[in-house]
Specification:
heterodimer, A: alpha+beta, B: five-stranded antiparallel beta sheet, 11 helices, 18 strands, globular
Chain lengths: 467, 370
């Protein structure tokens, strides 16, 4: 039997998609890389996923797991003809443990849907990527996703207690657990953030956090990117960790204002969006301290929103940033690097210099509080040579970040896009240690091959040219 | 002794004083001055078929047996403190007291175990031991940003980075947390820091679950044989309001329970909602001391001797409840220490084989059978 007919026998023909139109849709995620798909399957149970993995192994076809396809680094794009396992239908939300504050969910549950369903319990799932209306919990686990609120709460890894995983040999295992500190190696540490290269996550025990009793959101306009960046450094070094601390530059503010009219100050060169949470008295004092630090740095405009409607409007501006950019140019490339917070001013200056030198339209909206930069280059991919130019500029920005003690990616992941930049951060010996993890989980290299680790790593070639 | 390992004799120093009695079983005690020297020790040990146990303060593995005690006393000190970035890099042999002393002037904290200042950062990370403020700040592994280690195959590996947010491949630095030296020897660690709150109070409460429900992000809710306390922090005013809401007697600062010092230390780990039930089981064993971490799911207790039947019963109960029991005492086997293995055992086995192909790094530290 052919692979396709085997899959159809297992799942029925409606859950095995291989029409050219389907294959074209599934060949890309939200990034710029195009892949090659043999078929896309839509399992509904863990057991079906396990059977699919065993079948793919028998047919020697690599597997790429996929959630909503909102990733930007090509993590869900098959580099060689592969089977796409789309996990959107594993979307159950099981019984909520309100005392232990956790719940088992399927990887296909949409991030925002989870927090909405938890509203009656006064709890939420902390990671909130900008794509949270579309992205899935499984995708969040795969990329160790962040979002504005991971400044105080930590990235996805801090919010995952256990995962059920179908391993490369089709076994179903659980790593971590409802109880803390399971004996043995804590494999959650490497499974979270592994971009589907170690197995397929089929169930996730997420940790839930309390909704804060009170919230205030500040929108602060600055005369320069430097003064805004300095305010970020000063807030952190004064012992304040706001729930979120986001920055937008003038171009981004203009794009957003055109789009959602949130009342952002158009005369400012940079805008900070800060959110403080806690009990009412701490919220007031933290908001005052941030406003005062901002004033010391020359802030020209401070707005404090305390009612839900105004807060929602301020956040709408931030969360619509990428939609707003679509007005500026047909295509955009969204970058993701990290620098130590104390080096923000210096690296931002360098990034503007690089953008200018390449003559690119660049807008910035980013998680300033944890030094996670997102320079966004708007362009028209139909212009000859434009994509190469964008990639060259992006590489220089990565190098500038790493020179300042930073890193390749803060939350989008490595995928295909950055895998060959890994040697900028790690030595051959360091990468070989990482490759040992891949080999331990997936000795035959069938799980999302060619991702994360650079070309030439052990286990890079699925066809067996392993070192 | 150095010659026995074919090492240049001025690279290492024999330490007989610093090594606790529990390590009397080790044939050699070596204190490398750098992680590169530690890697050389691992290589030599592999060549000669000797087993290594990394030793900090000697409190984690109180009795494990190995040919070489690799003492981290010279891998000690603050390497790079960036208070404005809230990160610090320290040598593995740095004690928690030394770490706290470095952080105190800037009122920062790494939120590591509070009541064992003599323990080393390397030991706490290697054993994945968390402090009582875990309810608020998460486990110790949440603090580990970067690790430099000498692997079991004798290479010096850097994992992670000195950044609070970083996704670049497989996070080996977190995997090292709780690996008990089975992947290699930790040389240094970069920790994420938290600003310490200006006001802290310990409030006696009647009902732990009410405390957990009422308070927003308490640091800890602990129950001991003496009663239950909530640990709250914030501004003068917020702590006042929280304290009044709880209504109990309160004291300035955090008054942590005294450490349990029994010969046999027992950690019961259950889903957090089952702590009250687990307490009933633990109390039925009449321990002199216990500390239950509500909202977390850990109950520490201690006994004078290793009593197989009663600990076996406790372990069976914990397993049925989705948890486990870890026992720390002299002369225990891996099975007695951990109970049965769980969770992707084949993958764990392969990772250990790939990181320690000669089986020199704390071999047999984890139980193998499920």
């Amino acid at each position: 039997m052919t692979f396709i007919s085997d899959l159809e026998a297992l799942l029925g023909s409606d859950r095995v998609r291989h029409h050219p139109l389907d294959l074209a849709v599934f060949a890309k995620d939200a990034g710029v890389v195009q892949g090659s798909v043999v078929a896309a399957v839509l399992p509904e149970t863990t057991e079906e996923v396990a059977a699919i993995v065993r079948l793919a192994a028998r047919h020697d076809t690599p597997i790429v797991p996929r959630g909503a396809g909102t990733g930007l680094a090509g993590g869900a794009v098959p580099t060689r003809p592969g089977l796409l396992v789309v996990l959107m239908r594993l979307d159950s939300i099981e019984e909520i443990d309100t005392v232990g504050r956790s719940v088992w969910v399927g990887p296909g549950v949409i991030n925002l849907d989870l927090s909405t369903s938890l509203e009656p319990y006064g709890l939420h799932f902390a990671p909130d990527p900008s794509s949270q209306r579309a992205c899935t919990i499984g995708g969040n686990v795969a990329t160790n996703a962040g979002g504005p609120h991971c400044l105080a709460d930590g990235t996805t890894i801090a919010h995952i207690r256990a995962v059920e995983l179908v391993t490369a040999d089709g076994e179903i295992v659980v790593v971590g657990g409802e109880a803390p500190d399971s004996p043995g190696l804590d494999l959650r540490a490497v499974v979270v953030g592994s971009e589907g290269t170690l197995g397929i996550v089929t169930r996730v025990l997420v940790r839930l956090v309390q909704n804060p009793p009170d919230v205030a959101t500040l929108l602060i306009g600055f005369p320069s990117v430097e003064s805004a960046s300095q305010t970020v450094s000063d807030v952190i070094s004064n012992g304040l960790i706001p729930a979120a601390l986001e920055m937008m530059d003038k171009r981004m503010v203009e794009a957003v204002e055109n789009f959602v009219h949130a009342g952002y100050p158009l005369e400012a060169e940079a805008v900070l969006l800060a959110e403080v949470t806690g009990t009412p008295s701490t919220v007031v004092s933290d908001a005052e301290r941030i406003a005062s630090i901002a004033s010391d740095n020359g802030a020209i405009d401070v707005r404090i929103a305390t009612d839900d409607a105004e807060r929602a409007l301020l956040w709408k501006g931030r969360k619509s940033a990428f939609g707003a950019v679509a007005q500026a140019a047909p295509d955009y490339y969204l970058h993701d690097t990290v620098v130590p917070r104390t080096r923000l001013v210096e690296v931002m200056n360098k990034i503007y210099e690089i953008g200018d030198r390449y003559g690119l339209t660049m807008l910035n909206v980013f998680h300033a509080g944890d030094g996670n930069l997102h320079p966004l280059m708007a362009f028209d991919a139909k212009e000859p040579g434009m994509l190469d130019l964008v990639h060259a500029a992006a590489r220089e920005m990565v190098e500038a970040s790493i020179e300042a003690g930073g890193s390749l990616s803060g939350e989008h992941g490595v995928g295909i896009e950055k895998r060959d930049l890994m040697p900028l951060v790690f030595s051959e010996i360091d990468l070989d240690a990482q490759a040992r993890i891949k080999e331990a989980f997936d000795p035959e290299c069938l799980m999302n091959p060619d991702k994360v680790l650079p070309k030439g790593s052990r286990c890079f070639d699925a066809s067996g040219v392993r070192k | 002794m150095s010659q026995a390992l074919s090492l240049s004799d001025n690279s290492f120093e024999e330490i007989s004083v610093a090594v606790p009695n529990a390590f009397a079983n080790a044939t050699y005690a070596l204190a490398p001055r750098s992680i590169e020297e530690a890697a050389t020790v691992v290589q030599s040990a592999a060549d000669q078929g000797l087993a290594i146990m990394p030793v900090g303060s000697g409190s984690t593995l109180r009795s494990a047996e190995a040919d070489i005690a690799l003492v981290t006393s010279h891998l000690r000190g603050i390497i790079d403190y960036q208070p404005d970035d809230l990160t610090i890099v320290v040598g593995a042999g740095t004690t928690l007291a030394e770490l706290d002393a470095a952080l105190a002037p800037r009122q920062q904290s790494a939120a590591l175990p509070e009541v064992s200042p003599y323990r080393t950062v390397g030991g706490v990370v290697a054993s994945g031991t968390s402090g009582y403020s875990r309810l608020r700040y998460g486990p110790t592994s949440d603090r580990v940003l970067e690790v430099v280690m000498a692997t079991g195959y004798g290479e010096v590996v850097h994992a992670g980075g000195r950044l609070v947010k970083n996704v670049t491949g497989y996070d080996l630095s977190r995997l090292v947390a709780g690996s008990y030296g089975s992947l290699g020897v930790i040389g240094s660690v970069c920790l994420k820091l938290w600003p310490a709150a200006s006001v802290r109070r310990t409030v006696v409460i009647d009902n732990a679950l009410v405390g957990l429900d009422t308070l927003y992000q308490p640091v800890a809710v602990l129950e001991t044989e003496n009663g239950t306390s909530a640990y709250i922090q914030g501004t003068e005013r917020s702590v006042q309001i929280d304290g009044d809401a709880l209504g109990g007697v309160s004291s300035d600062g955090f008054i942590w329970p005294d450490p349990i010092r029994s010969p046999v230390l027992v950690d019961v780990r259950v889903p957090a909602r089952l702590v009250p039930e687990a307490l009933v089981v633990v109390r039925s064993m009449s321990p002199q001391r216990f500390v239950a971490q509500h909202g977390v799911g850990v109950i520490e207790t201690g006994f004078d001797s290793y009593d197989e039947p009663s600990l076996g019963e406790l372990r069976a109960w914990a397993r049925r409840s989705g948890g486990s029991v870890a026992v720390s005492a002299a002369g225990l086997s891996a099975e007695q220490r951990w109970g049965p293995a769980s969770g992707a055992i084949a993958v764990q086995r392969r990772i250990l084989d790939l990181f320690d192909p000669s089986g020199v790094c704390n071999p047999g530290i984890f139980s193998e059978s499920s």
